[in-house]
């Protein structure tokens, strides 16, 4: 399963990526999780099964949603509480739920 | 020939033929006149001082013998013809029946007003108006001008219990009964006192302070003196009661002859005082004749004394063989007399026949004494005051208090005078010998090192002069005790210890034994510095920073013009300016003018508020900021600052005038890592209900108990409660307060009833949730960030974002910000490690043009973070944040 995280410059998300990877490993889930900045996001859509957006670039959500719909990929904004807590497991669950 | 003259002439003839002491009877029979008439004439002559009389029956008269017949007053009139009119007026007032007239002596500083009053007293005694023992009581109204109560008490006396702790005390009027009361600087007498005084003039009665039942009487000849124009400085009713106005002309209105006589006389007096012959060159005397001497005879005398003291010091140290004064020995200011001489209309006709003038310590009768304006050293002034107060029967604590007020006053006056007289070291060299100067400078270095602070330049100057006089006096064998040595020692322990060291230094360098009292005086110089830095000249610096070209400058100009002083500084902030540059400008403007009294920053928009805390740290002085300031605020601030108000007072006043002053966020206070969260509950009614509230909150809120404390406090006293709150804030991040009234506008507040009815629970829960998220964030980031302390960084970022929100009129939900906070933490950390952060697509310009205001607010809002961490947030990063806030704006609009 390929999970793409998008944030302003791909910085804060890297920490979240690590946490999510740890959570996936614990549960024995095969997951490819990576983070990119908003500017370079488009070119990564094709490799993704689900796209998650950092709450600080919520303002770009509409644009990314369109991209996702065009490819049939679910796109959503990460819950600020989970994002703020860097709750890897929580965000992973969120991604899994979206994919279903 | 008038009858009275006939009587006088006859007396003189008889005296020549050896017949003295005749009765009116004898005279009357020889002259064939009525005895009663002759007796009247004799008594008149006696009153005029031309005749003396013997007690006993019959009363016998004789010519007043030689010099005593001529009172000093008469002599003054002869030597100083410009004073002749004044002398006549004075005599007339003293002799005016039945009790003499009250007088007002008007004259500039140093024209000899108190000396004149003393001579009038002497005259009154000489003519028998008063008995020999008649008191002459002097009181300077300026001495107590700061304390009208004390002043009136001094003057009229105090009844026991008139005010708390008041003891029965005689007034000066009572002490002057049967003599003269001289009120110097009477214009400093408060109106109330003037009124009390004219009741006394009218009816000869007065009351002690606090007395209502008794009226006291006293027979006092009142002589007042003032340097001011009586028309504008005294009550009309008071002026009317003193019909005799005696004008003492200033030095410049006197003739050269008169001035020359004064100069000669003063040198003569110094020769007597020193017990050494003083040689003065003609040029030096000419300089004294012509130099500008604004403080009149008093200054002339003081300057001559100073010159003689210096000449004496040169003689003692072996630099000169005799006590001699040349032109070059004179202070620069006196030397200018030789230049002014050329311009003086009468200088050509005024020549001094000799090249040298020697003043012998024995020759001539120097008219010593009565000089009111001695150039007083610290000693003289204190000693004199001490004696005066003691004489008046003031003792114990009150004496100490008065003396302390006085010494302090004297010292600050000394300093003030110093400032006018001495502007640089060169001036000082003219007055102080090189060895004293060297010693002083060595002492200052030592003192500054020991006390760990700088002494004002002025203190150094004053100290040098003081040491010079001290040494001169001690060498002359005069020892002066410091009346408050023990108090000074106790009050300024540290300074006193240093002063003792300085004493040793002085003793070593000057080969002189010094009494320990001298350490007391030195201590006051060292200690004075501290008070002065707080009290005098230092003011709160007022700076205006405004957006737009020239807005701040214009505002400052208006205020400076209105106050006719350059007291407001301005920094303009063009719209496209980088806040960092502006900040540096503000700092540069302030650096040279800032004092410990601090800085008041007046800004137009809240985004500049953050300057305050950085300035505070960098300049190490307190800084307050008021936003949304307009011209009236600036004016008010500047006015108060000029008056020497403290920063906090000005701040409170101006803040009250500026409705939208921006509060400083509590979180910005850099305290210990506030990792624990708290809700504070406060009740008027004691801890009981605060505890009950705590239970309700614990029951209805879902809180992570490892992070939270609910702290009940008592709010009996609001001020106390605020203090408690701020001490809690040192260890906890106070998320909200539940109380009757809002204790701190910076902390969310929920009214009691909202909580009791559970209506507020949802909101509190949301607030709590956001806080918990941030605590978790900090914990997660702890292992991730390399350069930042997560808790502090999160607080700073949240404060900055909240400020931007406020400036934009948004009230963003804390949850909306969470992502951005995390983002900025990572961004700052990367910037600190020097990594490149931006992918850089050049959209920056675009986003700036889309919304200039938003861009500027965000840029300024991030300034505190940039400044704090010393980084620069790139344009692209800025744009993300601009977009974020724009989306929030959009969200709120819809």
TrEMBL record, chain A:
Highest taxon above the source species: Bacteria
Gene Ontology MF terms: transferase activity
Keyword field contains Transport: yes
UniProt keyword list: Kinase, Phosphoprotein, Phosphotransferase system, Sugar transport, Transferase, Transport
This enzyme's EC code(s): 2.7.1.-
Regions that span the bilayer: none
Residues bearing the modification Phosphocysteine: 7
UniProt-recorded name of the protein: PTS sugar transporter subunit IIB
Protein source organism: Geobacillus thermodenitrificans
Upper classification of the organism: Bacteria, Bacillati, Bacillota, Bacilli, Bacillales
